[in-house]
Amino acid sequence: MQEIILGVMANILRTYAIYRFMEVMNPLKTVSRRLKILMYSGFVVLTSGGYYLFHNQIINIMTNLTGLMLILLIYKESLEKKIVFAIGIYSINVVIESLVFSATGLYKDYDEMTRSIKECITSLGIYFCVFLLERTCFKKERQFPIRTSLWIMMLSVPAFSIIEVFCMWQANYNNKRLISMEIIGILITNIAIFYLYDALQDYYEQKSEKEKFHSLMEGYRNQIEVMQESWRKIRSLRHDLKHHIFELKYLAAHEDINKILIYLDNMEKQIVNEDEYICSGISEVDSTLNYLLHYARQNLDDVRAKVALPEELDIHGFTLNVILGNLLDNAIHAAKQSEKKYLSIFIREKQGILYIQVENSYSGVLRMEKNKLLSTKENVDRHGIGLGNVEKIVKEKEGDININWDGEIFCVKVMLLVEKLKSAEII
């Protein structure tokens, strides 16, 4: 009985490795969690049942390929691609199983316990290969990437587990119950470690998304307040417009140009909302810029902003909002730490090209790793997607980004094709 339990546990680990592989190949989370659990559980039942009920190689191959095709049904891929995936995954399984046979010499024994141990080592080998592929060939863009040194430590878990299982089998083969319990513990530990890692990644990504949403809502709230204040001033001016006209006519009749100019200046002050720094006509951009510039004016000494966008500019504000929001967030944070406390933003559109320049003072200290700039914020996970991902978005939109600095000023220049900003999609 312990041999069957051990084999089923090995199959569960192998299934989890297949799940991770499919998640890397299909990063879009369009499949419900419940359906995934159902299909992958069905795969375990089908393959384990076929193996232990019939002990037939042909049936074993058929149940594995059928189970893989059932799993692939839930993913949005072409039939040809699904068939290639199913054959490919099963082929990897066969190759690793053959390597295990050759390396350990387990092919010399044919009892049930030996076969179960072979399945455990094979599953750990598949598990190891999938994580290696995640880190190299199919590296996922995670919002909170793990350091290489920690990845090596995590990869060492299945690697050392393989060695440990083989050594335990050699040393304790006569005590089958003990070896079964120990190996099951190792398999569960492997699954738990990487499941917890993924769970923590998802938790912090969801937390970050909520904070971004909260920041976006704050921007919209600020923009609504700005618009309400502007509308109040316009209504006030309209209400008194008749009196203003009479006064201006009187001053014009007496040819008092200086008083006319002073009067017009006062009218301008009455209608201008000091909190409305930007009015580009793109609501997402206006809300973000007005909110962040208002925050910048409260915390910095020298804030300059010039936005020259035509009213007929037909773009989707989402991507531009992500870029501007993160660049300004980084710039304001850096400027606050400097002596000059200076920030400048310039945006214009010309001949189908959108030009953005964000310039700020900074403390003169930059964090670099492998020729890449790192955030100097204490809680990096709480501050947007970072300059690195801004570069990634600009590249995906076929734009250009230039970053330069001297001892006091840090400057980011971005050029984007307006045509590429008509869609909100970020790959």
What would you note in describing this structure?
The protein is of the alpha+beta class and 427 residues long. Helix content is 65%, strand content 11%. It is built from 12 helices and 7 strands. The protein has helices at residues 2-25, 33-54, 57-72, 79-104, 112-135, 148-171, 176-239, 241-253, 257-271, 283-299, 317-336, 386-396; strands spanning 302-308, 342-350, 353-361, 367-369, 372-374, 400-405, 409-417. The strands form 2 sheets. Strands 1-2-3-7-6 form a 5-stranded mixed beta sheet, covered by helices on one side. Strands 4-5 form a two-stranded antiparallel sheet. Strand 4 and strand 5 (372-374) form a beta hairpin. Helix 1 packs parallel to helix 5 and helix 1 (2-25) packs parallel to helix 7. The longest helix is centred in the middle third of the chain and has 64 residues, at 176-239. The chain is elongated and about 115 Å long. The protein starts with a helix and ends in a 10-residue tail after the last strand. The relative contact order is 0.07. Residues 378-385 have low confidence and may be disordered.
The DSSP helix count reads 12
* Helix-strand pattern: HHHHHHHHHHEHEEEEHEE
Write out the strand line-up for the largest beta sheet, numbering strands in chain order: 1-2-3-7-6
Poorly predicted runs of 5 or more residues: 378-385
**Which structural class is indicated by helix and strand composition?**
alpha+beta
Largest sheet: 5 strands, mixed
Overall morphology: elongated
Q: Any idea what the radius of gyration is?
A: 32 Å
Give average pLDDT, whole number: 76
Strand content: 5-15%
Number of strands: 7
What's the end-to-end separation, in Å?
49 Å
Oligomer: single chain
Helix content: 55-70%
